[in-house]
Design goal:
homodimer; alpha/beta
């Protein structure tokens, strides 16, 4: 058996947060950051923290925001040799403020940042030599040249017998572009493990009904579907199995990164040979620990931390 | 006499500052912001605060960073009708940290921000109807399409008998591009009032010697040169006059914006009909008050504040 090597690709950002609820970016105030962030970066950092060989393809600027990310990822064990430092673009950023109603408000600089320059030239076949698993973050698919790059990476990994997982956290506006929708359906057709949040299950199907959407996706050839239901836990569907796991109860401090840590932990556990139920329990624990810490990538957990948490809860 | 209307054009940014000396952007930490910023924006806000009719041409994103700036400028009396809100680009930003040796370290998102999209189409002749004075900030001249836009604005104002002032706070890299250097020399040839810092006086001349540079620039047709010397005060040169004014002693808290407030106050005082010496004293006071407040645009002063400060110092 090949040494498992999990890879992903996409935006590597810094996040700057307000310190007060309902704090507006229309006035100066106290902030905290820059925290390393970006959904694929959080995902892969969680994979590395579980001791699995892994890497990320992405672009940052040649600036301290980029170094902030690269140093954290390297320190946690992520292979950073395919993170490109661009001279003409700054590292992407996300400013986030938390509103009274529990939602978040963002100001993003991604499309015109280094992360927006990711393209097929950054996808080098040699880098995938040991790759057995490639994870696609829907948030990364905000331009056609990135979709092309993603498709190239998927085809390389599929051709060598690897597994594709897909977390479709896509911006709604993207789905209104017909060619973008087609590209996403194509990615879903390549997918082995589909990991939507509950409101995303029918995003790319011909039906709006959850049960029909699950059936349709399994019939497309997707082997496993994991639906993330937040405080309601998660559900797992395959041809043969249906599993429901309740969520752990936890005091939510910062929801950013919870879904990424959940997905990373499920994939990492499966790569270690665990069955779906065991992987889901760990994934639930990982999501719960992620929301209990402030900062997008601050809530990643080791197996020791997950075991301790599961034992206590 | 026409009602004086001072105008400028260029980058409108938010600034985010660290709270500790030597704080790095490679690690999360406490920050404060977003403050309204951008050299031309600070300049025009100081002009407005002195009660002079004025306006700025610039681009921001359709986001709260843009609204942060627009609301502050409008509140202080700047005409904001030529600030364009762009959909595809975020408002520019500058992260700044203060180092132990007194220097500053920046991470800029300007070139690929809304501010970098400024071009000739944003320079509408009708907007200049009442304009008697146009101020050029060298920091704004970071692309050829902005230089073209600036040249168009200068030619409109010159054609209707207006005055051009030029503060050449240019990034050094720009001067290494031969065509950019030529464009800047062209702007200097149009200039009536040149306002460099001491290290900038010979940037665009054929000599490195200050006295020769002053002579060369006056011979080009520039009518007045004001050299900003920081703690050493300022010097004024014209064909007939040479004036030296010492600086006020002040506890420096934040140097950002001091040169912009100095320049704005000199121009505003001249527009009100004061002689050069009187305008320089007010300009010195304005620069001194600017550095005594944290935040790039937070240190602008009214005539009442300037008079009170001058009386006490």
């Amino acid at each position: 058996m090949k040494k498992p090597k999990i890879m992903t690709m996409g935006e590597i950002l810094v996040e700057i947060m307000t310190t007060q609820i309902d704090q507006s970016f229309r006035r100066p105030g106290n902030l905290v950051g820059p925290y390393p962030s970006g959904a694929p970066a959080i995902f892969i950092d969680q994979v590395a923290t579980l001791g699995i060989a892994c890497g990320i393809i992405g672009c940052v600027g040649d600036d301290d925001f980029g170094r902030n990310n690269i140093e954290r990822l390297a320190q946690d064990g992520v292979d950073i040799s395919s993170i490109y430092k661009l001279n003409e673009h700054v590292t992407g950023s996300a400013f986030v403020t938390y509103l009274k109603d529990g939602t978040r408000d963002f100001i993003f600089n991604i499309t015109n940042s280094a992360s927006g320059q990711l393209s097929m030239e950054h996808v080098q076949e040699a880098y995938f030599k040991d790759c057995t698993h490639f994870h696609v973050m829907g948030s990364s698919l905000f331009s056609f040249h990135i979709v092309d790059a993603m498709t190239k990476a998927i085809e390389i990994v599929k051709a060598q017998g690897g597994v594709i997982s897909f977390d479709p956290n896509i911006r709604k506006e993207m789905l209104n572009i017909p060619e973008m929708r087609e590209a996403l359906v194509l990615i879903l057709e390549y997918t082995d493990i589909f990991m939507p949040s509950d409101h995303e299950i029918a995003l790319l199907t011909n039906t709006n009904n959850e049960a029909d959407a699950i059936k349709e996706i399994l019939e497309m050839g997707v082997r496993e579907i994991i639906i993330k239901r937040g405080k309601e836990g998660c559900c797992y569907y395959s041809e043969k199995e249906k599993i429901k796991i309740p969520a752990f109860k936890i005091n939510e401090l910062d929801p950013t990164g919870a879904g990424d840590c959940f997905g990373a932990t499920f994939i990492a556990c499966r790569a270690k040979g665990m069955d779906a139920r065991q992987a889901l329990i760990y994934a639930n624990a990982s999501g719960a620990l992620a929301v209990s810490k402030k900062g997008p990538m601050e809530g990643v957990s080791s197996f020791a931390e997950l075991d301790e948490f599961i034992l206590k809860n």
